[in-house]
């Protein structure tokens, strides 16, 4: 069947529909031009392949993290735990302190492979080398080759319908 040409969806309809897709929340960490840790909240993380281990994140092209990743060709991800909403909010705020003024140094340790910050108390950590980057519309799709990862048995933070929540009872209902 041929696709019918319709008007573009209204931005509000697209946003409202996309909000119904729950995600986890992670802090993407990079090193800035002075090799200081930089953190950015993201929820666009998707795993692509198991062997080789590849993951994808989507960043606004204007995100400072894009330039940092292109410079160092590496990044890390800390998947936030259910009680880390403060970190999620902090690393999304556009006017947050950068460089020496950022709390990131105290809240993390450097990853052994990339030097990128790994947040304390996170559910999982990934250290990645940049595999490739592609600009699509006003975003950059960043594919990372996973160099190392680790997971803790803690409940992750969930972003759903524009709010932070905890899966809670979901831990008792697996899909398998
Ligand atoms: C829950 C949540 C998820 C977000 N996910 C993304 C994302 O996947 N990609 C992105 O570019 N920005 C995302 N943002 C917005 C960035 O965190 C925000 O624009 C940040 O200030 C960018 O910082 P930077 O320019 O230093 O990288 C998200 C914000 C929140 C609160």
UniProtKB/TrEMBL annotation:
Statement: the UniProt record of this protein carries the keyword Oxidoreductase: yes
SMART domains in UniProt: Flavin_Reduct
Claim: Oxidoreductase is one of the keywords in the record: yes
Alphabetized UniProt keyword annotations: Oxidoreductase
UniProt-listed Pfam families: Flavin_Reduct
Residue span, Flavin reductase like domain: 18-166
Protein name, entry field: Flavin reductase family protein
Organism whose genome encodes this protein: Streptomyces flavotricini
Lineage: Bacteria, Bacillati, Actinomycetota, Actinomycetes, Kitasatosporales
